[in-house]
Amino acid sequence: MDRNEFDRFYEFSDWVAKDKFVLSYSGYVSEDILYAVGQTLRQRLAGHMDNPAKIKNVFSIFVELMQNLIRYADEGPQPEDEEGEKPSFGIVMISDNGNGGMDMMAGNYVSPEEAASLSQRVNEISDLDADELRSLYKTKLRQPTEVQSKGGSIGLIEIARRASTPPTCATYDAEDGLKFFMIKVTV
Amino acid sequence: MEIFRLEATSRTPEVELNPEQGTLTMIGESYPEDIRTYYEPITVALEQFAATQPSDLKITIKLTYFNSGSARALMELLDAIDEAAQDKFNAELNWYCDPDDDITQEFVEDIAADLSAVKLQILDLDPNDLV
Asked: Is the minimum CB–CB distance between B68 and chain A shorter than 8 Å?
């Protein structure tokens, strides 16, 4: 490792190793990772928040964000496994926003079509008020899972209902014609 | 029919269906890896129970946390009980909800609105009293 790599690594740790970063994870995502990181998150939240309702909302949103990554984040630069499938890859970051709340972000690589569809879905949900979200949640629960489009509609509505402000998203150009999709949720 | 029982795991609740007492209890958290695989045996056990021509079913739900996938599975389970109970047996459901969790309260209220045979009562869950 030459000096430059230490510099880069230090810059990275300078970013993420601060206390206001309650938790960050990047890499392959699986149900095992969800559970392990989720337990760590619960312990970390106990030291950062004293409102049990908010802690529950942060944990719930974390689970839905992770499950969306596990199901849909199978594009990107990661190599294929023995069966020719790409393992899901993503990044999540939860930080103390200094106003008694948490900012939660998740990102993953998607095709341009999927990026457009996800952005549209997040924007549509962001326009809804609490009653509209409640009624949409119920409608979607009653739809057979196979009718729902990719992207975990129910999960996204759950996220929006538990957030304190409407979720926002952004899409950046990535390599190989892919997009990097990011969602931000505040609790 | 024998007692149907699932022990609690770190991600799934303890479930017990006691046909003799006519009780179903679910206690703990629910965010299983595979929702279908987890909830399917419960549905099957309830079908077997309904086939024994019971007179009563008392359901107790004390879930401190469940994810959106579990919300759907719970709704489907209760729909199935509601259908089986129609003019066949009395079904009562005591659902203990975290009083600070508005979203879960609303979900349970919305479920209640769709049940016709099952009498649902929403009660306060004390997170320290989960036994």
From this structure: yes
